[in-house]
Amino acid sequence: MTNAWPSNRPDTLENICLGVCAQNQETFCVEDPDGKLSVRPGADILPGVVDRLVTALQKDDVLDLKWISLFRDTSLTRLTRIDLSRCVLGETEMDIVTDHPLQELILTDTVLSKNTVECINKLSRTLRILKYENNPQESMTDLTFTGLIADMLENPQINNVGEKQFGKDFFINTPNLRILSLRDCFFKESHQSCNLQILLNPLNRLTHLDLSRCLLDIVQLQSLQNLHNLMWLNLSQIMLMPDELEQVLEHVCKCKNLRHLDISCDAMEHHGVLHYDNGEKCLKKLMSCLPYLTSLDLSGTDLPKIPQETVSHKLEPTSKGQQTRVAEKKCCIAGLDGRIFEFLGLLHCRGDPCNEENLPAKQVSGHATEEQVLISIQRYYDRDNALTSSLNSLFKIFRYSEVKNHCAALEAILLGMRENQCDKQVQISGSASLFYIVKGPHKENITYLQKRRLITCLLDAMERQHDDMTMLRNGCLTICNLAIPQDVLFCYKRLVKVLIDLLKIPDQEEFIQRISIYLLNCLACQVDGDEKRTVGTLGAVEVMLDLIRNKWESNTCDEVLEVAWSTLWNVTDETAANCEKFMNNGGMDLFKDCLQRFVDKPELLRNMMGLMGNIAEVKFLRPKLMDPEYITMFSNLLDSKSDGIEVSYNAAGIFSHLMSDGPDAWTISCPARDEVIDRLTNAIERWPINCSRNINYRSFMPIFKLLRAFDTTAAQHWSVWALANLTLVYPGKYCSLLKKEGGVDLLEQVIQDPRPTNAVRALAKQVLSQVHNEAEVMDNSCEQEEVEEDSQDESDVEME
Fold first, then answer.
1. What is the mean pLDDT of the chain?
2. d(C-alpha 631, C-alpha 651), whole Å
3. N or C, which end of the chain has less CB nearby within 10 Å?
């Protein structure tokens, strides 16, 4: 088992294009008046791309099969394989699919149509692989594979092929079939039922046969001896009586060319291992009859027995020959002497032989070592009990020891979770280990594509197990250890929706509530307008307000309350639609209530005032702020020293925007506009120009608007002070941002215009000086790097 991580490459252009087409089907198809889809005129789908396009459509859970009608014209599209797992098939869809020269057809957990068997027989010449697993929802109905055959036997129709008679000579007329998987099927003898012998007799080219979890009569296994090419046989968990087990092995022993044999049992489901009366004798017979066997699964049985060595207490000298024989490695399982297998399945065997030394196999499934556990997860990804047990064993190694092969562990977990999306225990166990991988020492090695699959698996699980707190906690904690938002931008909308749905759950567990709101805040903080609007459209503003309302009513000021206001601050940043949602859903009343009740909480106050600054930036919302009560509150906060200057700074920003609309927009008499201007100016002059800030500007455009407010000196004063402070304290970040957005020309206009005050001009000159100095520092740094590089080049030449 390799421990190497794959190279970190982006997805192929072809896969990306297929994904885009799957999500935007109008790019290559049109809808007919009758609702059916057709390939758009002029569009060509290359033969090698058709199968992959179907896979891309299925990845996006497009399981209503409307897109099957795209493939009606076999001259334009040509399918060779299709996976219809978990689909609900109609007769029309089945006809369309089997009009193509399919080589592989997968029907796992599929609700079949009544014409399924006839359609499969249309593939007589081409079909090589047929996989069917009974849909649990249809297990008691006729819409199973064997149920459909039984129905056809009870209602005779013309289903014969030449001289061959349906029900007597064949059931499926696919003589070229190589791989057949029929899981959870019913083959009991009755007057009208699917007889296994009749089913298998014409399939003499089979190399692989899977009859796991089938219910059958032992005599029907006689047909195995006619499958002369059979190399791979799975009879795991077949439902037989204990006295029939050795008879099964009698039939198996006639398959002389077998390379792989699985006769394992689900020990958990059967409340104990499967018992063989003569286990050692049975294994010896298998070994003598199956000389080519290289893979043997005995999990959940008592077949592998550890021989007991006889101990002599007689004191005698040990000869040299005896010493050599003792030193030789002996096979630790009775009956397997002299054989070395590529794989040996020993999970949940009686006596735990997987713990023994000298196991006769290169790979072993079990729970004794990390390698055995990983092999078990990979091998038993389609067996819920064995998979859950193995995932639990892996989690214990992560938690109490050290996992060495993180890459193999990641791949195994993702396989198990993807194939068992509806199994809660599998999802919980798998996600618990994913947490340790994502926060572990090899997290930097996780590739781009692996990370996408990991996140998709977690979101699938969180959506399906939305009422399980353990699953939700595991998912949130694991995502927290990713790079937010970079790693999740491909599923941004989906993740936001999941988090908002979590926060909507009444009486949500406090930890999940805290971590969900933290993630949502991170997602809203570092994205641009489109993503912020998406967050608002999905209901984040309303959910935050509800959380704040609940905290206020319970008189609780905690981390959730602070982050809720912070999230609103971030989601309303330069996003007018979200600001309007805040105003229309009682946001200002909550602001007033929290300000009055939690006035001594500086972090909370800063977040609330930052949000108010965003509201004030929206011109059509500013009249709603022009209320004597609100203006008085903001005016009082101009003198606040809470959280350094942040609260005072944000209050000044609010007034700067309000005043930039001119005297006519000041529609209240108290407080008077001139009075507020005086307080605003005094506050600005009081702030130290070199003070550090707890704020993050992604754009200076709102400040630049105030820089042009020549008729409102106080607003202009605040804007130029903000630029002077930011470019002085954080020159590396904000000097370049100012230049990029055209701030230099604006500042020069301010300096040259006669209307600004001397204080404003002085600050504008200071900003330009700081930008100029930073540019010189950067130029010198680049020159120094070039000199060093040149020097290195010369050194290399001399050495050569």
1. 87
2. 10
3. C
